[in-house]
Write a structure and sequence with these properties.
Blueprint: H1 34-39, H2 61-64, E1 75-78, E2 86-89, E3 92-93, H3 95-99, H4 104-107, E4 111-116, E5 125-128, H5 129-147, E6 154-157, H6 164-175, E7 178-181, H7 188-198, E8 202-206, E9 208-211, E10 214-217, H8 219-231, E11 238-242, E12 260-262, H9 263-266, E13 280-281, E14 285-291, E15 299-304, H10 306-318, E16 327-330, H11 337-349, E17 353-357, H12 368-376, E18 380-383, H13 385-394, E19 408-412, H14 418-428, E20 434-438, E21 472-475, E22 490-494, E23 504-505, H15 509-516, E24 534-542, E25 548-553, E26 557-560, E27 563-566, H16 567-574, E28 580-590, E29 594-603, H17 610-624, E30 633-636, H18 650-657, H19 672-681
Parallel strand pairs: 4-17, 6-7, 6-8, 7-14, 8-11, 11-12, 16-17, 16-18, 18-19, 19-20, 29-30
Antiparallel strand pairs: 1-2, 3-13, 4-5, 9-10, 14-15, 15-23, 21-22, 22-24, 24-25, 26-27, 28-29
Helix pairs in contact: 5-6, 7-8, 10-11, 13-14, 16-17, 18-19
The structure holds 5'-O-[(S)-ethoxy(hydroxy)phosphoryl]adenosine (WTA).
Amino acid sequence: MPDPEGAAPNSGVDVSEAQIAVHWKEEEHLPPPAKFVSQANVADGSIRSRFTLDRFPDCFREYAELLSWERRWHTTLDTERAPFYRWFVGGRLNASFNCLDRHLPHHAAKPAFLWVPEPEAEPVLAVTYRELYERVNEFAALLRDRAGVRAGDRVTVHLPMVPELPVTMLACARLGAIHSVVFGGFSGEACGVRIADSGSRVLVTIDGYYRGGKLLDHKANADLAVAAAAREGQRVDHVLVWRRRPEERSTSAPWVEGRDLDVVTELPRFRGAEVPPVPMESEAPLFLMYTSGTTGRPKGCQHGTGGYLAYAVGTSRIYQDLHPEDVYWCLADIGWITGHTYIVYGPLALATTSVLYEGLPTFPDPARIWRIAERLGVTILHTSPTTIRLLRKADPEGPRRFDLRFKHLTTVGEPIEPDVWRWYFEVVGGGRAAVVDTWWQTETGGVLCSTIPGVDPMKPGSAGPGALGVHPVILDDHGAEVPPGTGRAGNLCIRNPWPGIFQTIWGDPERFVATYFRRFNRDPTSRDWQDWPYFAGDGATESSDGYFRILGRVDDVINVAGHRLGTKEIESACLTVREVAEAAVVPVHDELRGRRPEIYISLKPGASDPGQVASAVARAVEEQIGKIARPSAVRVVADMPKTRSGKIMRRVLGAISNSLDVGDITTLANPEAVAAIQALVRPAGSSPPRPSRTDGDAADPGDR
Ligand code: WTA
């Protein structure tokens, strides 16, 4: 069978992020600041000797020991059905117990979350571990008794950054139900597709929330989601609606009797309820997290309980360097994998105090982040390079005006330019904080490449070596290893499994194997993990010091502001506009967001005003995916560049959009189309006016 997703550069994908990556020069090492080292959870390099490949897989017991098990496991790793790995087999545990119950004896009064509403006049809400425990129990009782949720059921959660989001997740986990959180900024349509794929009968949402100074009506999305799910044959029986303002409903969407449940009016019946945490097999799925791939259909990455949680807690301790006394702030949205692992499961399992912020980082002004950090005494900040670029641009001296106490600064989601790295280190951290750049993916559950902050020298622009017990390798398109220090880019792969690896794609095990393992597999019948390198889908280089530099995706995925969008998903949204004959989406460099999708369309004969069609296309993309996918431009072309077999050459469009050389076009069926598109995109002698530019909200890094 041809491999639809295991594509490497130049085999099936004609323009990829990795191909348009900017190569910056190799930077010098910098030692981690002494003050950080003096308090780091791990300050001794000898830890690596416990995680060498010959200690695999038992080295990871060290992470599992950080959890409380109802029954201990007997087998660390079972590879009998490789690459469907089973971790900590025989063990039983409950994720909500590990994040809540076990902290009650010592941390009941400690805030789990400091929730900061977007409107500055609203007070910060501290939710202690005891309160979180109570709220989770009450909501679990409601889910069980009013919505009939049982272990193994899927529950789709479409919530913004409010405490009700972790409450809902932990309530599901308490019951052994599988949560599928859909990023709150995704459209109702996108949510509906995910509801249908996961087979959820229950949707948890909220009436409204604040974003950019506006109270958005979120319940309206739930209605669209239920309708979209119904079109795919999935019925939603219950829509549980939280309230943003307890005293009144913040939505004008109609209330569907019998389907919609007002959580605030229902909860009093469950006051003081205690729901025993259901002990789950280590291998029981904990959650699904949908992500984009090469085909139009998002994939539900299924994460298990024991392996995932062990990896979340272990890496939170070592790479985020969480300590009990820290005030930690991860700016990601819980609706992405970063928020699942590094806001909810890892930090809560370690009884950390986390800041949870509802709104836009730059609302009402670019100093908002620094005000919050100063006021709440934040010691660790975790964010994306896009947010850092945005804050630097808005006010490069901003952080200096505040009494900031960061000791550790971490990044995730995209490559960070050395220049941006230095601003983060010098201006935000005052040169006193350690900086780490963590590379990983929805599929991987936790960090796979990063420096250990108290041990390894920092190197701007490089993610660093493989995480403890994780052994990356660069393979060329033929599967040969690219040795370190050659400067040659290749496919970033991981030699071995690790506990955080996802278990499968929900409902599509074949796609799981095809996408991530088939490409470099040595023997499809092998049960030995050594024969199944994990193909990450990223291009990278490895320097002689063993540090990896990530260039970007090698497939049809575009990373916008640290979030993954599939070009095929965007193209299908474009094709829903009646007048559009063909659509092609390419990544373009964007000063703030790293990359953005740019759309080329051709119209059907007799189509009306091209300007109007272009606007309709931009709207369709927003409605079907979300604001985050909004294109930098929609360009209407008379003719797409095509091969003789009629395939659109995205490589050529990508080169034009990124002002790169289009290369050899003589083999095209219509080479003359290229000059026409070039003239459209960059009219001679002028700086590019972009007639159909659909500028996004420049202040929104898309974190939500
Ligand atoms: C990219 C986010 C460079 C990469 C945790 C990966 C990065 C995709 C980095 C996963 C980094 C993530 N440097 N690129 N530190 N971290 N990426 O699934 O292309 O939303 O494959 O997971 O983001 O995105 P995802």
